[in-house]
What we know:
It is a single chain. The chain is an alpha+beta fold. Helix content is 48%, strand content 17%. The protein has a single domain (2-105), classed as Winged helix-like DNA-binding domain superfamily/Winged helix DNA-binding domain (Arc Repressor Mutant, subunit A). A three-stranded antiparallel β-sheet has the order 3-5-4. A two-stranded antiparallel sheet has the order 1-2. Mean pLDDT is 83; it is low at 8-12.
Amino acid sequence: MIVLLVGAREKMKQTKIHCHVETAIAVVGGKWKPWILWHLYDGVRRYGELRRLTPGITGKMLTQHLRELERDGVVERKVYAQKVPKVEYSFTKYGETMRPLLKELCNWGGKHAGRQASTDRATSIKKLKKPAPRKTGAPAK
C-alpha cells in the first residue's frame, strides 16, 4: 500500500492507494487536469493561453491544478522577471513520459465517439422503423 498526498497544498490529505491506477488518477484525474495536460502536449503555454483553451475553468481552479501538477513533478513553471511578469508552463522531463498516455487517451476517445455516433444512429433508425402503436378500443374498419 502506498500513501499519497492529494489535494491543494493548504488542504492536503493523506490517501491510501491500493492500486497503480488510483495513483495515476490521483495525479492526472478530474475535470480539468486532462485538458490542461492535453494543451501542454504541443509545448510551452502561458497561463492566459491555458485559460482561453480550457473553457469554463476559473482562474482559481487553473492555478490550483497547475500547482498540483507542478508539485507532482509533471509540469514546470518558468517565471521571467520582466516589467510585465511572464509565466510559462510546460512538461518536465518526467511529465514528457505522459505523452504516449495522452495520445492513446485521445485515440480511444475518437474511437469511442465514433462508436457512440454509430450506436446513436442505429437507435434512431430503430425508432423510425418501429410501427406506431395501434389505438385500442375502436374497431378497425
